[in-house]
Structure prediction request, 301 residues.
Amino acid sequence: MNIHTEPEDGKNPVLELIKESEKYLNLNYYLIDDPDIMKAIEERVSHKVNVRIIIDGQPYEGSNHSTMEALRKTGAQVNLSPSRFDNAEVFDHAKYIYNEKRFLIGTMNMTDAAFRNNREYFIIGDERKIHKSLSSIFESDWKGERAGEVDRKDLIVSPDSENRILGILRDGKKLFIETEELGNDKVILDALKMKGNKLKMILPSSLSSEDVNNAEELMNNGAKIRVMPADKLYMHAKMIHTGKFVFIGSQNFSSTSLLKNREVGVMAKKFGAKKVFAKTFKEDWKNSENISRKMRRDAKS
Prediction:
């Protein structure tokens, strides 16, 4: 597996994966609107590559139907996510690509902000079992069917990923976490609380009042929590480093994300991968700030 960070690595690793596709290319993304990505897709279609795309129909930001039409103009086949993931409360929030050679699983949408302004991570690999599992999930979602049982040893897939994430949190002697949302999943919050001063977490500075209050409760139990100023980076990543392994994926720490959405994440266990995540977290920790008194006051008002 090759580890990539954004915004440092830019679009080229993604564009290279798209451009190497000779037979087929399948993408499942919450949002796709980056013009360079769309141009690369169109170019592959022109070379007779079978390109299929699944996107969420009703993302948090609004309707994706105009994006769907733009994607169809590339010549790709485009489906909205299955109906069970396509409503105002539940989403197809996955972020992965695969072709006949390799796969990409990450935290970022295919948007300009993801490559330019956000802290994001993604993994590109060719492990056969992971590739086969992604293919099984995609084909089921493409048809609107249940994915059923697939090999999920290294993949963590929602719906029903709460227990796997919980296991990661409990297993880690120390936890280094970067996440966009602290979330509302009580089981997860209780597990984080139990870590006490073994937990270090970086959140975005645009925290909700609920997240600020939950963060304060964790800090009262010894956790060290900081926020990333938006003028430096938007903390969109979803990363858990336990020391033994690293998880990245599309999952936030919310009940909807873990129990209902379509989400895909992956475990990285090799020393080189862990080193990259640890180095990036250390740099982000230096660039982040304490939760301000104003944020705490505003959350309580």
Observations:
- The two ends are 46 Å apart (CA to CA).
- DSSP finds eleven helices and 16 strands in the chain.
- The chain has two domains: 2-156, 158-300.
